[in-house]
Write a structure and sequence with these properties.
single chain; 211 residues; alpha+beta; 434 Repressor (Amino-terminal Domain); Jelly Rolls; 7-stranded mixed β-sheet; 3-stranded antiparallel β-sheet; 6 helices; 10 strands; globular
């Protein structure tokens, strides 16, 4: 299946733009999210992609939407841009798409063997709706540090077996199993098997991200 594949090269310029708008140096941003300055520099230059954990930390620290950092979509664009201000006097707004075709999804491969495929035709300021694919041995945090972020998340495993560590508990999720919890609870996901894991994931944020 062909798809709108973005290996992360667009992430770097957007990260640099938002970091600059927050007046943060590479070193200061790295200190705040708990990673090396060289990793931030590599991400901005498009030679490296972050893990899910680092990506969430960057978005949280910068107050940005994941959708903007990953795909440059409208919900996270900088205020005051032409795209934000509308089509202009006398011009009709384009119709809002409601169907996302399977062969035109926005896709990004993150570090540690995780792929995200966006399931909405445009950005959603309050919600991330994704198909998440874990390759054999893939896990959500390359640093093996649990994730914590705003909102509430819901997951449904379609195929394969995914290990979900939430708080002090560990769960093995197979096809048809689902999970729901507050995203502020420390959590991580691991594919300990030799097969791919496909899951549908929804994160409902408590407040929309800025650009």
């Amino acid at each position: 299946m062909t798809a709108d594949f973005d290996p992360g090269t667009g992430l770097g310029p957007r990260l640099r733009l938002v970091r600059g708008s927050r007046q943060l140096s590479v070193r200061e941003l790295a200190r705040r999210v708990g990673c090396s300055a060289s990793l931030i520099s590599q991400i901005e230059r498009g030679v490296s992609v972050p893990s899910v954990g680092v990506l969430y930390s960057l978005a949280t620290e910068l107050g940005s939407s994941l959708d903007y950092l990953l795909f440059g979509s409208g919900a996270g664009r900088l205020a005051g841009t032409a795209a934000e201000s509308g089509p202009g006097p006398g011009l009709a707004s384009p119709p809002t798409a409601i169907v996302q075709r399977g062969d035109t999804r926005k896709i990004i491969d993150l570090a540690s063997g995780v792929r995200w495929e966006r399931l909405t035709p445009q950005s959603e300021a309050m919600t991330d709706f994704l198909e998440v694919i874990y390759s054999p041995g893939g896990h959500s945090t390359g640093e093996r540090r649990p994730l914590r972020h705003d909102g509430r998340e819901y997951g449904l495993v379609i195929s394969g077996t995914l290990t979900a560590n939430v708080g002090f508990e560990s769960y093995e999720l197979g096809p048809g199993d689902s999970i729901a919890f507050d995203s502020a609870t420390p959590h991580e996901y691991l594919n300990k098997t030799g097969d791919y894991v496909h899951a549908i994931w929804v994160v409902v944020h408590s407040e929309p991200g800025r650009a």
